[in-house]
Structure formats: C-alpha cells, structure tokens
Amino acid sequence: MENWRQRGQQGLETLGDKLRLYGRWWVARGWNSPRAWRAIAIGVLALSIVLALFRQPLADWLWPESRIQMLLDAGNTALAQGRLSAEDGSGARELFEAAAALDPDRSDVRQALARTAQAALQRARQALAKGDYAGCEQALQLARRLQAPSADIDRINQELHGLQRGQGSVEDLLLQAEAAQAQGRLDDGDDSALPLYQQVLAIQPDRMQALEGRDEALADLLMQANRAVENGQLQAAAEGLRRVERYDAGHAELPAAKALLNAALEQHRLQGERALARGRLDAAADAFEQVVAVAEDPAARQGLERVAHLQAQEATRLAGDFQFEQAAHALQQARRLAPDSAEVAAATQTVERIRNARRSMDTGLPAGERERRLKTLLKQLQDAEAREQWLLPPGSSAYDRFKAAQALAPQDPRVKRAAARIQPAARACMEDNLRANRLRAARTCLDAWQALAPGDSSLATARRRLAQRWIAVGSERLGSGDIAFAQQALLQAQEIDAATPEITGFSERVRNALR
Fold first, then answer.
1. Is 390 buried (19+), middle (13-18) or exposed (0-12) by CB count in 10 A?
2. Whole-number Å distance between alpha carbons of 162 and 185
C-alpha cells in the first residue's frame, strides 16, 4: 500500500513539472498576448462555418451507408404516394437513382428502381383504360428510362396506338348511341342505344359519357318493366329485367324492380288458387301459366297439375253423357297443362272406351244377335260387380260393361235395372272404404259412382267428405314428418273437391314444410 502511495506522488510531481514547462513554452512563443487569442478565436469561427456549410457532403463522404438508407426511405415514401418522378428531385426515380450513384451494386437499390418501373407500367395501363392517352405515353417514357421489360412496354404501346386510331370511331359510336336513345330505341337491334354504348365501353371501359348514357337507358328499361308488371304482363316484365341484368347486373334500381315482379307473381299464384277453389278452371290455369312462364314456381306448377286432373275428370263426365266433342276439348286442355300426367292418360283411355262403346251400337243388328250380345254384357257386368272392379281393368270393368250395354240397348229394362243396381253398389263401396280409411279404394268407387250417375245430387257431399278425410290423414302424417304423403293427400283432396274449405290452410302448411 505504501509503495502505491509513493508511486502516485511521484506521478503527480512529474505531471506538474510538465505543465510548468508547457506554460513557459506558451509564453515564450508569444501566444499569451491578446493578439494571439484573437487569431485563435477567428480560426475557431472559420472552422465552424466550414463545418456548417459542408456538413452533409462530409458526412456522405465519411458515412455513405446512412445517406443511401435515407434516400431509399424517401424514395419508398414517394413511391407509396404515387410520385414516380418529379423535376425537383423528390420523385421515387430521382431518389433511387441518387442512391444508385452512391452504391450501384446494392441489391435493394436495384430492386427499388425495378418496383418504380413496374409502377410506371401500371400507371400506363390505368391511363389507357381511362382514355388518357397523353398520360399513358408519359408513363411509358418513364418506364423506358427505368428499363422496364420491353415486352410489357411494347404491348401497352401497341394497345395505345390501336385505341388512338379508333378514337374517331368511338366518337361516332357515342353519337349514334345518343341518337338511338333519343328515339327510344334502347335494345331492339345492334344499332340501338345499349349495344352501341357497350361497343364504346369495350374500347374505353371508363368512358363516363358511355357509362352515364347506358345507366339512363337501363333506367328507362326498368321503368317499362315496372309498367308491364302493373298491366299484368309478367312475361314481358321478366324479359325486360333480364335485359337490364345482362347489361349491368349491379344496377341500383334492379333489386326494387325484381321485388315488384316477385310480388306480382305471388299475387297471380294466389289468384289461381282462389279460382281453382271456386271451380273456375280456365281462370286458374291462366293465372298459374303466367307464373310458370316467368319462373319455375313449384306451387304454380302443382296448381296446373290440379287443373289438368279436374279437366280430365270433366272429360270423363262429358263422355259419360256422350258429349264427345266437349270431352275432347277438356282432354286437350288437360294434356296441354300436364302432358305427363297419369290421371290425364287414364281419362283419355276412359273417354276412348266410351266412344268405342257408343260406336259399337249397330241398329242394323238382327234382334237375335242383339239379344245375345246384351246378355253377354250383362253377365260380364255382374261378374265385375261381384269383384268390385268398377273402373279397372280398362275394357273389362263394370263401368265399361254397363256403358257397352247401354249403348246397345239404352231403353232395355234390364239395362235400367242394372244401372239402378250398380249405382247404389258403387256408392256403398265408397262408403265402406271410407269407413275403413282405404281412401284410394274409396276414390275409385266414387269415380265409378260419378261415371254411372253424373247427375246424382249426393255426389257433391260424398266428394266433400272424401276430400276432408284426405286432408285429415295428410295433416296427421305431416305432423309426423311425412311431407311426401302430405303432398299427395293435398293433391287428392284438390282433385276430388277443390272447393273444400280446409284445403287452403292445409296447403299453406305443406308449403311451409317444403321451405
């Protein structure tokens, strides 16, 4: 410890001796005078001025990396703001080129210049799409300076020259489109307003004059479609909306027009239901057909099938009264509405059987031959009656045998007694099956009863009861989740008696279950 203390003292003494010698040297040189101090002050001031003026160049010379990074940051900011080039040097190109001058081998500098070149190409494309040909040329010049890919530059340049050559044709198309629009020719040929506006927009997609003209023309089309809806011309209205959607699916007024048409379609469908419930088959068919002509509506399609089934039943009734011309007309309507319906096909066969039976009546037959044929038919009638084959099989049913016998000898007492016998039997058959809940068999017996005695006043009540039973069973099955059976029950009830009050509520329940 003592040694360290002695060494410290010796060091301080040595330092003091040196400082005294430096002071004598300073005085000996004459720098302790006022003049010397002024010279030193002036030198310090001059050095400060030089450093202030040349601080940045000196910093760039001494520390170039920081300068390059500052230029890159400023260039990226300019690029993000869209200032690709500027005469005052604040553009991305000028800033990145300044960085490249300091260090041309830096990869991030080269990449920055490449990004600027791509931005110039994108600006050229945007200007071309807007019809700004001067802006496109300016952007292409910048892209060339930045050595953008020549293939991209040539492609844009080619499009530019093509559009510049077609500039005159675009103006002509606009004049033609505006003239057609003024004449009210919106979309009725290639020389009408909307197709002409589309040609302009194919060349210049952002041409405001064409966009505004097209929007006005489409608004006029929508107005026409709305008027068609109000006049009940649903198919014409739907076609108008399809034309509007073809030109501009995002038109602001299109959703409201579609909503108006859909409301009208729903109204017509309900009108068809009401007409069907009242037995006005032609009005119901017209309403349903207007709906399905516009859209595939399952409820309206089912309504047409119900009308067709009722027309088929009417044809069978008319044929039973030997009114074959009216029966043929009813069948024609039924086939038009439901060409694939099994019920319509069966009615067609029935009407043909009755027609053939009528034709088989030959007044020129000898009395013996007539008697022999009549006995055979009556025997066959009794056999079919015993087997409860009222309508099936075709040609051998009790109904067919009875009609053949009636055509052969309509006034014969045995034929009249057979009619008086089998009509109550068909009625009893319907009642027995209804009590046993065999609804399809009850329907067959009811049809036979109606065919045998179309004017029976009890038929209306029987039809109503059977229709209500179908609704009751269908409602029960619907509650257990059997939608398919409920649909079939609804169809059966509507065919048997479309005016049954319970049909409306049950139909709504089935429709809700299908959603």
1. buried
2. 30
CB within 8 Å of 289: residues ≥ 6 apart: 304, 337
Asked if residues 84 and 93 have their Cβ atoms less than 8 Å apart, the reply is yes
Best CA proximity match to 184, nearest among 229, 222, 217, 219: 217
For residue 29, the one-letter residue type is R
Query: Do the Cβ atoms of 311 and 330 come closer than 8 Å?
Result: yes
Task: Specify the length of the chain in residues.
Answer: 515
CA angle 33, 39, 42 (to 5 degrees): 145
CB 84, CB 92: distance < 8 Å: yes
Burial 101-139 (b: 16+ CB within 10 A, else e): eeeeeeeebeebbebbbebbbebbeebbeebbeeebbbb
Reading the block at residue 261, the tokens are 């048409």
pTM for this structure?
0.43
Q: What are phi and psi of 166, to 5 degrees?
A: -90, 5
- For 294-344, give the DSSP string: HS--HHHHHHHHHHHHHHHHHHHHHHHTT-HHHHHHHHHHHHHH-TT-HHH
pLDDT per residue rounded down to tens, the chain (515 residues): 445 455 545 655 565 555 555 455 445 555 555 655 555 556 556 555 654 555 555 444 544 567 778 888 888 898 888 888 888 888 888 888 888 888 788 888 888 888 988 998 898 888 877 777 778 888 888 888 888 888 888 888 888 776 665 554 677 777 787 787 777 787 777 777 778 777 777 777 777 877 787 888 878 878 887 888 788 788 788 887 888 778 777 778 888 888 887 888 888 888 888 887 777 888 888 888 888 787 777 888 888 888 888 888 788 777 766 677 888 888 888 888 888 777 777 778 777 777 776 666 555 567 777 788 888 888 888 888 788 776 667 667 777 788 778 777 777 888 888 877 777 877 888 888 889 888 888 887 887 777 677 667 788 888 889 999 999 999 999 888 888 888 888 888 887 887 788 888 888 888 888 77
3-class state of residue 278 by DSSP:
coil
